[in-house]
Design brief:
Blueprint lengths: L2 E2 L5 H4 L4 E7 L4 H17 L3 E7 L4 H6 L7 E6 L2 E7 L4 H13 L2
Parallel strand pairs: 1-3, 2-3
Antiparallel strand pairs: 2-4, 4-5
Length: 106
C-alpha cells in the first residue's frame, strides 16, 4: 500500500531508490480513476519502486515546490531528488512502460 507523504516525511520516504509520488485530491475525478491503476502497478513494481500519495489540499506548499499545477501528477524521485513529473490520467500499460524505462536506466 502506498505510503502517505507529507512535508514531515517527504525527505525520509524519498531518500533512496525510485519513489513515485502521486499528487492528488479528494475532489479530483481523474485522480480517483488513477487510484486502481497505481494500486495494480504497485503490486507489480512494489519490490523495486516505492509508491507514495500526497494530498495537495493538505500540502499546497509541496505542490508549488514541485511545480504541480494540475492533478493527477506523478513525481518520480531518485535517491531523494525529484527527477521527472508526468501529469494527467495515464493507462496502466503506458505507465508500466514508463516505469520499465526508469528501472532500466537506474
Amino acid at each position: 500500500m502506498a505510503v502517505t507523504i507529507t512535508k514531515d516525511n517527504l525527505a525520509e520516504e524519498t531518500a533512496s531508490g525510485l519513489v513515485l509520488v502521486d499528487f492528488w485530491a479528494d475532489w479530483c475525478a481523474p485522480c480517483k480513476m488513477m487510484d486502481p491503476i497505481l494500486e495494480q502497478l504497485e503490486t507489480t513494481y512494489g519490490d523495486r519502486i516505492k509508491f507514495g500519495k500526497l494530498n495537495v489540499e493538505n500540502n499546497q506548499d509541496l505542490a508549488m515546490n514541485y511545480k504541480v499545477m494540475s492533478i493527477p501528477s506523478l513525481v518520480l524521485f531518485r535517491d531523494g531528488k525529484a527527477v521527472e513529473k508526468v501529469t494527467g490520467l495515464y493507462p496502466k500499460e503506458k505507465l508500466a512502460k514508463y516505469l520499465d524505462q526508469k528501472l532500466a536506466s537506474n
